[in-house]
Amino acid sequence: MIKINLKDKKIFGNEAGEDEKLAVLNSYYIEHSNFDDFFDSDERLSIVSARKGMGKSALLSRLEFKLINDENYKRPLIIRVKGNELLGLGDFKGEDHSYLENYWKQIICKRIIVEIGNQIGFALNSDEMSFVELSEIEGLKSKNLVGGLIARVKGKLPGTGFEVKSDVPANLDKLLQRYQDNDNSPNVWLLVDDIDAKFQNTNENQARVGSFFSAIRSLSFDNQNLNIRATVRSDVWSCLRHLEDLDKLQQYIIEIFWSKKYMRDMLAQKILVYIQKNFPDSNEAKLKLKSDYNKIIDIVFNSPIEWRGDRDAKLFDAISAFSNRRPRWMGQLCRMASKKASENARIKKVNIDHINYILSDFGALRRDDLIKEHSHQFEELTHLIDSLRSTQKEFTQSELHLIIESNFIRGRDVSAIPKIDGKTYVESEDLGDFLYKLGLISRAHEDGKTFTHYTDDPDLYRSLESRKDNIVWSIHPAYRTFLNIK
C-alpha cells in the first residue's frame, strides 16, 4: 500500500489549466465528445462558452498540444493570443458594428503578419507598419491566407517597416515562395482567449465584443486555410444574444458542461497520473480509470460518509456539491483539504472533517473570484455579497428583496447606488437578478439536488413565476459557511 504525500499539490494538477505544461495537461485531460468539432481541422470556426473555472483555457491548451504533436494536422502555424493583446493593437471606439467588424479584421491580419514574420526570419516594426487595408483583406477571399498575406508583404518590403536582420538567409525569396505555395503552406490556427475580459454590459462593450465574433466568422470562411478558435464567458454571450448578426454564430458555439461523472473521472485521472509517475511499480499504478475510478479516488479520500441522508455516500459526492461542476473549484477544494489533512502525520487520507474545516476559506476564495471577475460590473459587489451574511440558505424572490433592502439599501439615497452591469439601478430586483447572473444564487428544485443556473435560463429571475414567489432561490453551498449561513 503506497502512502501519498498529502502536502504535494501536484496530486491534483494545476488549478489554472492554461498555466499547466501542455504535456502534463494532456496526460490527465478527459476527452468529451462535445469537443470533437473544436479539434476538427475541417471546422473553420468554433467558439467555446462556459462560466469561469470550467476549463475554457484548458481546452485551448489541449488543442494547442494536439496541433503540435498530432501528425494529422497539416504543419499548423499556431497563433495563441489573449483578447487584451489584440485590443492593444488598435484603438476601438464607438458602437458602429460594421466599422468595428472591419477594424477587427485589420487587427487580426496584422497579428498574423507579425507571426509570419517571426517564423520566416525577419522582424516587423509594429509601430511603423500600417494596418492591412480593408480592400486587401477582401482580396484575400478564396485564396491561401498565408500566401496572400506574404504576397502583399513581399511587394511592400522597402516601405512597410520591415527590418531585415543581418542573419536573414540569402534565399529569402525562396523562403517566401514556400509560404505562397498552396499545397505546402501551413494552416493558420488562431486561438483567442478572454476576448471578453473586463466586459461590461454597455452598448459600447456589446458592439466591441459582438463585432469581434462577426469578424472571425467572416475571416474564417473567406480564407481557405484559416481556423479560428475562441472562448467567451457564458454570461457575456447571454448579453450578446440579442445582436442580430450573432444569431448566425450560434451553430458554432460549444457549451462546456461537466457532468458529475466527468468531474469524477477528472479527479481520478489526475490522481492516477500522479501515482504512475511517483509509484510506477505499485499495484495502484496498474489500476484502470474506466473500471477502478472509486478505488483510485479512495487512495486519497476516505469513504464512506453520511451525505444528505445517505449513510453510504462517497466523499466525492461532497466534493462534487461544493465544486459546482467547475474543475478549478474542485482542484482548489481538494488541495486545501489535503493540506489540512497533512498537518497530522498520522492521517493518511482526506476525510469529510478536513473539507468541512476549510469551507470558510474556500468560500472566501469563491467570493474573491466573484469580485475579481465582476467588480467592474458593480463596484459595490463586496458589500452586496456581505449583505447576505447570517441570513438564510433558501428564499423566495420577495424574501431576498427584503434582505437586500434591509442590509444593503436601507438609509441610502437610491441615486447613489452604482450602475449594475452598465445600467442604472431601479429596484431591488436588479440586484437579485445580478446575484443570479453571478451564480451566487440559483433555483433549487424540490429534490434538493437539482439546480437551475443563469446559463440554463437567463430570464428566469425576472419571470412572472419568480415574481409570484413560486420559485425557491438558494445560495450555493460553496458560499454558505463563509457567509455564516446554516
TrEMBL record:
InterPro entries: Sll1717-like (IPR059206). It comes from the Bacteria. NCBIfam families: ATPase_Sll1717. This is Archaeal ATPase.
